[in-house]
Write a structure and sequence with these properties.
single chain; mainly alpha; elongated
């Protein structure tokens, strides 16, 4: 019985007929304007392997001079002893040592470590951001009149 269903068979009445595919005809009218495919203004031919990009490929324009001068530019003022005779960098590094003394347990939320960590890194990132703006602005003539 299974061999009967597996054998290919033709349906009576359709075995010799051939169905031609329906061809789409282009309809035109003077009342309807032809459709024009919209172009993407963000897509530049050949850029980024055909992907749509909103920024130029090297938008960061990374330069290690900015990182070096920005770090030095933040370490110098943060090392001035202005907080009860101690510097921000010194207080931050001392708090790191204090917290490492009891290493497996994390710092408490009331620890001074968090204040010095956030303040020191916030100052560093602000200095790096302004350094990137200033250094790249000067090399690319943003500030010329």
């Amino acid at each position: 019985m299974a061999a009967t269903f597996a054998a290919p068979s033709t349906v009576i009445g359709l075995g010799g007929s051939s169905v031609s595919p329906i061809k789409a005809k282009a309809l035109s009218s003077s009342f309807i304007k032809p459709t024009i495919r919209a172009r993407n203004p963000l897509k530049v031919a050949g850029a980024s392997g055909g992907r749509v990009t909103c920024f130029e490929q090297n938008w960061l324009r990374r330069d290690l001079n900015v990182v070096g001068f920005g770090l030095i530019g933040w370490l110098a003022p943060s090392s001035i002893p202005a907080i009860n005779g101690k510097s921000l960098t010194g207080l931050f590094f001392d708090s790191i040592g204090t917290e490492l003394a009891h290493f497996p347990t994390p710092p408490a939320l009331t620890s001074q470590f968090w204040l010095w960590l956030i303040t020191w890194h916030l100052g560093l990132f602000i200095c790096l951001t302004f350094g990137q703006i200033g250094f790249k602005g000067r090399t690319e003539d943003y500030f010329k009149k």
